[in-house]
Specification:
85 residues, mainly beta, Archaeosine Trna-guanine Transglycosylase, Chain: A, domain 4, five-stranded mixed β-sheet, 5 strands, globular
Length: 85
């Protein structure tokens, strides 16, 4: 059985700040990590191709929509999360 995985994801400053400041609750990603409900997501802010040192623990993945469906290409996913203590 696969355990819970903590995914550290690079995010350009614009998207990092959308989650931090405005409550964005979804990500569109290539599914190269086998994202699953229950996994934990942590964003690492990038600016001009470099890490800023800022991280944001988003929480637990609650839903994963996998392509191909509704224009989402095969191999890509959209997932949502909820904050988790």
């Amino acid at each position: 059985m696969r355990g819970v995985i903590k995914h550290y994801l690079k995010a350009e400053a614009e998207y990092f700040q959308a989650a931090e400041r405005y409550g964005k609750k979804f990500e569109l990603r290539l599914n190269d990590r086998d994202y699953q409900p229950g996994d934990i997501v942590v964003l690492q802010e990038m600016e001009d191709g470099r890490f800023t040192g800022r991280t944001l623990r988003l929480g637990e993945i609650t839903y994963v929509l996998e392509g191909p469906i509704f224009g989402l290409a095969e191999g890509w996913v959209i997932f949502s999360w909820r904050a988790k203590d």
